[in-house]
Amino acid sequence: MEVSAEAKRIMVVALGKLYSSRTQRGGLRLHRSLLLTLVMKSARDMYHAAQATTESVAGGYEQQQPAAEGTTEPTGAQTELLGAASLATEKPRTLTREEVSGSPTELRRHAENKENMCPTGPAQHSRKRRGKAAMEPDFLPCKKAKLEQAICPQQLSVNSVSPGDFWPSYWPRLTITGFDWEGRN
Amino acid sequence: NYFERADIISTVEFNHTGELLATGDKGGRVVIFQREPESKSEPFSQGEYNVYSTFQSHEPEFDYLKSLEIEEKINKIRWLPQQNAAHFLLSTNDKTIKLWKVSERDKRPEGYNLKDEEGHIKDMSTVTSLQVPVLMPMDLMVEVSPRRVFANAHTYHVNSISVNSDYETYMSADDLRINLWHLDITDRSFNIVDIKPTNMEDLTEVITAAEFHPHHCNLFVYSSSKGTLRLCDMREAALCDKHSKLFEEPEDPSARSFFSEIISSVSDVKFSHSGRYLLTRDYLTAKVWDLNMESKPLETYQVHDYLRSKLCSLYENDCIFDKFECAWNGSDSVIMTGAYNNFFRMFDRNTKRDVTLEASRESSKPRAVLKPRRVCAAGGKRRKDDISVDSLDFTKKILHTAWHPTENIIAIAATNNLYIFQDKLNSELH
């Protein structure tokens, strides 16, 4: 659980740093951006690994989550994040609480998730924890579906993350266009 | 605000004789210090360094095509070996390298026939005889002029420049490419390393530093963000993407953390003066590598291992991204690198002794002897003058240090202050 909380915090901090580095004088620093992306990936992997451990331990608890969702099926990563949110015993970050959003955001997010989802994903997770949308930390990227589609599973794919997945509605829309600065004409 | 100051020193470099010391700062300025000759009255007191010249090397620029501002901060300065009365140095910011000529003028011609002392044309009727202008002594003037500008060759940010031992070429390295230049030719350069992947999404590592071998003009090394070093031989191929040697220490799986990738990134690499060894610096350690052994470093020195448990906070306050440089002494027996709280560390490779010293006004009265410092774990047993890990000031970082090529004189850049320490007892290197 410690690992999950730490991983989440690290991911949030990395996103914040990546975001603020765009306004930095001198342009985006490739080395720094790369390290931040690696940290995020590392945290995400450890997060998933921690979740996999806790699921086997606390399987019974998860069954009690309401199976709401309806229109869309959350991606693998999102189900695990929902699980974490519902299982987490630590004090949630202020950020998470602020993201408790009303239905318009929730609907928009679901619509966007539909676009990003892998409809016939080979590894559809049977553990469908439909946590309440209010507890879903929508600031975290749902990478899992994208990775399953990707040819090379080791891709960093910062630009595969859709802003709509994790930015709360009141934050400015951030389009991460990756590192291809040469093409920026 | 730390980030707004233009006088933060960003690079320090002695010239090949140690007579001159150049510093570059965040505002694009270069300050050159010169060592005063030894005083005859005090034969054992070595000369001190005084300001010799100051000039604006780089100005802020704007890349309109990419809508990016180009910082004027001087990333590196490298001196050329002296070949005549003038001194030459290369200075670089993120995008442009410049060759500067530093020369002295201590005489001026006087007694022109057509002009008077102020330069006004004389009235011809007053000229009754011809005279030969004579060179008269004048107050020393140091003139600096840009001789070459090497621009538009780097898409990414230049992190290193290195002059070749052939004294004709030099290289410049950015995050993904290394270019070879001829010192006389500015309109083209050869690309010798290119690690840019076809698809930028596949990017996994960047070049962090590069340096030519001190004696073999065909060899150079570059370090990566993954903690590896690559030795390349320019005789093997035009494009040195394939390394001759790869220096890499296998990762210790038990030490794996969220931040393993960040702390293993090499921030600086330096050949020893002998050319036999390499010195690298990553976030927590300094390592000496033998060019003949690729599998692991010869020696590993813990610079500030007490930070290992603090990596998360250092990540949050950005300190984990700090790039520390490292330096050899003239005889390659001692290595030096900076740390936080204005501390810097020296490791004697032979005796295995190490010392932590502080560069600060309080501890650096002229002629005072530096007192060794000690960092103790929080709550640990404290001696007087020890400092606890939690009391360290992480805004006071010593990223840039330099060692005189032949004597025990070191230059330490502490934010916007330059400290020069001399070992009066042991001026000869062991």
Automatic annotation (TrEMBL), chain A:
Listed Basic and acidic residues bias regions: 90-115
Pfam families xrefs: IER
InterPro entries: IER (IPR008653)
Region (Disordered): 88-134
Transmembrane segments annotated in the record for this chain: none
Protein family membership: Belongs to the IER family.
Protein name: Immediate early response 2
Naturally occurring in which organism (per UniProt): Cyclopterus lumpus (Lumpsucker)
UniProtKB/TrEMBL annotation, chain B:
SUPFAM superfamilies: WD40 repeat-like
GO molecular function terms noted in the UniProt entry: protein phosphatase regulator activity
Keyword Repeat in record: yes
InterPro entries: PP2A_PR55 (IPR000009), PP2A_PR55_CS (IPR018067), WD40/YVTN_repeat-like_dom_sf (IPR015943), WD40_repeat_dom_sf (IPR036322), WD40_rpt (IPR001680)
Keywords per UniProt: Repeat, WD repeat
A cellular component term, taken from the record's GO annotations: protein phosphatase type 2A complex
Family membership noted in the UniProt record: Belongs to the phosphatase 2A regulatory subunit B family.
Record text on subunit structure and interactions: PP2A consists of a common heterodimeric core enzyme, composed of a 36 kDa catalytic subunit (subunit C) and a 65 kDa constant regulatory subunit (PR65 or subunit A), that associates with a variety of regulatory subunits.
Name used for this protein in its record: Serine/threonine-protein phosphatase 2A 55 kDa regulatory subunit B
Organism of origin: Cyclopterus lumpus (Lumpsucker)
